[in-house]
Amino acid sequence: MTELELIDGCRKDNRIAQKLLFERYSPKFFGVCKRYIKQREDAEDILIEALYKAIANIGSYKGEGSFEGWMRRIVVNECLMFLRKQTNFRLTAELDDRFHGIEDDALNIAEQLAGQDILGLLDKLPTGYRTVFNLFVIEGFKHREIAEQLNISINTSKSQLILAKEKLRNLLN
Questions:
Q1: Per-residue DSSP letters for 27-60?
Q2: What distance in Å separates the CA atoms of residue 67 and residue 81, rounded to the nearest whole number?
Q3: What's the pLDDT band for 123 if we cut at 50, 70, 90?
Q4: What are the φ and ψ backbone dihedral angles of 49, each rounded to 5 degrees?
Q5: What is the C-alpha radius of gyration for the chain, rounded to an integer number of angstroms?
Q6: Which helix (H) or strand (E) holds 119?
């Protein structure tokens, strides 16, 4: 079944199309959930909730842009909502001169790691570090967007990324 047929079937509440959509996208989006959420059971719950929301709101997908990207946004937002309930992202660290060029360094770290290695290392990061790292490096958000999503300051976002990068560098050495 093509993606368009899946979308059309889900819009018509076709249970087979909904099942196929879940089967097609759940492995990929489970990986997204695991990057944000340490506990497997929590990641599974969030995945199910996110895919349920995607199916329930599929009528709002206008066919503009990637369908997978539209669903990915829902999955990431579900992860962030879970983390906001569980975590205080307002913990901050002071920035100093050693933190110039953090974006380039963070991208270099991500390029050096294989997928499974990233998941293993991200699990070792504190929640705030891991969340900001994922949003900045993997999802491509700007610090302003991250700050808005997590209800923190831009400097907190930057400091969390810096500290995540340093912790990852130490774990790699």
A1: HHHHHHHHHH-SSHHHHHHHHHHHHHHHHHTGGG
A2: 21
A3: confident
A4: -60, -45
A5: 17
A6: helix 115-122
What pLDDT does 115 receive?
55
Amino acid identity for residue 71 in this structure: M
Question: Model-level pTM?
Answer: 0.70
The residue behind tokens 């933190």 is 99
Q: Which helix (H) or strand (E) holds 90?
A: none
CB distance 158 to 95 below 8 Å: yes
Q: 């829902």: which residue's tokens? A: 74
Distance (Å, rounded) from C-alpha 39 to C-alpha 10?
30
Query: Both tokens of residue 22?
Result: 């879940």
Tokens of 145: 């967007």
Count of helix runs (H) and strand runs (E) in the chain? 9, 0
| Distance (Å) of CA 35 to CA 8, 15, 70, 114, 116 | 30, 29, 18, 13, 10
39: amino acid identity, one letter = Q
The rounded distance, in Å, linking the Cα atoms of 68 and 65 is: 9
Q: How confident is the model at residue 64 (pLDDT cuts 50, 70, 90)?
A: confident
Rounded Cα distance, 131 and 171, in Å: 17
Output phi, psi for 73, to 5 deg.
-60, -40
